[in-house]
Amino acid sequence: MKMELAMYQALRAIDVPELKAEAVIQALESDMLTLLATKSDLTNLEQRLTAEITHIDHRLTSEIHRLTAEIAKSDLKLSIRMASMLAVTIGILIGAMKVFL
């Protein structure tokens, strides 16, 4: 309120008509209330963003753990398949050696 009064007085001091000075002050006040963020607005936004980031971080961490477990399971399956294929290949080679030798 102090700023509006000071602005009004400054406008009147330079001979701006009273109605125009009031209109300027009202427009300024309206813009300040609708367009500008206050410290509490920014603090509230910071708290909400921090909470959202924390929530996303928890979700990503759990997803990373899930994917790590899935990769480990796939790694085990792949190792078993490779060992099985190697065993079959060695069996075929030994059988072929018996046949041809």
From TrEMBL:
In its keyword annotation, does this UniProt entry include Transmembrane?
Answer: yes
Keyword Transmembrane annotated: yes
Provide this UniProt record's keywords sorted from A to Z: Membrane, Transmembrane, Transmembrane helix
Mind telling me which residue stretches traverse the membrane in this protein?
82-100
Spell out the protein name for this chain.
DUF1640 domain-containing protein
